[in-house]
Amino acid sequence: MSSRSANAGYDRHITIFSPEGRLFQVEYAFKAISNAGLTSVGVRGKDSAVIATQKKVPDKLIDASTVTHVFRITPFIGCVMTGLDADGRNQVTRARQEAAEFKYKYGYDITPDMLAKRMANINQVYTQKAFMRPLGVSMVIIGWDEERGPQLYKTDPAGYFAGYRATAAGAKHQEAFNYLEKKLKGEGPASVEDTVELAIATLSSVLSANFKAQDLEIAVVTKENPQFRILSTDDIDAELMRIAEKD
Q1: pLDDT tens per residue across span 158-173
Q2: What's the whole-model pTM score?
Q3: Cα–Cα distance list, 34 to 31, 40, 97, 173 (Å)
Q4: Cβ contacts of residue 24 below 8 Å, gap of 6+?
């Protein structure tokens, strides 16, 4: 019996393991993230954390200012969503709700690790119940923790989450991992500028592209300004100019 026919039927149902111990629908959710065609990176520096992603407007008639994959969740936490757009917006809405409920219940802002843990727990429940499907989206969270400094976390459709020094998601995530492993030293880049530069250089290298400001979305949190800040096109242009002059 061929392996395809042996596995037939096990991908029809979310909650049933195949004889090899695989959950095919969860694996297909990971495939959906890669097939969305965007690559995102997150880098944690000594005193800052940065997320960067490609910005592609699918249609000339669409207003580019309404297309984004970078979202603020609380004043000090934000994320980049890689994968299916609608699933990403749904998860951001849920993350904002969880953050608001946490603050109402405990009287202080949720920390990045607690939010990542909560979103991963919700994702994990989606792999257990037949009336829901896993979301085809990966969430890379950055934020400022008063005790721990800059934080970078990633959650996936299987319900796994972890803190990272640098990470990537999307179409060319493996190539981005390899690049970051080579370039990242010690605690990570010392300055915000170097952290942003590493994020842009990673995308530029793995996608073999020279970016214009409107092709990128970048957000930062820093020690000087711990609020989650999405860079404007002018800010990104200034960064790209600075990198070009350095080269």
Answers
A1: 999 999 999 999 999 9
A2: 0.93
A3: 5, 11, 27, 8
A4: 7, 10, 11, 18
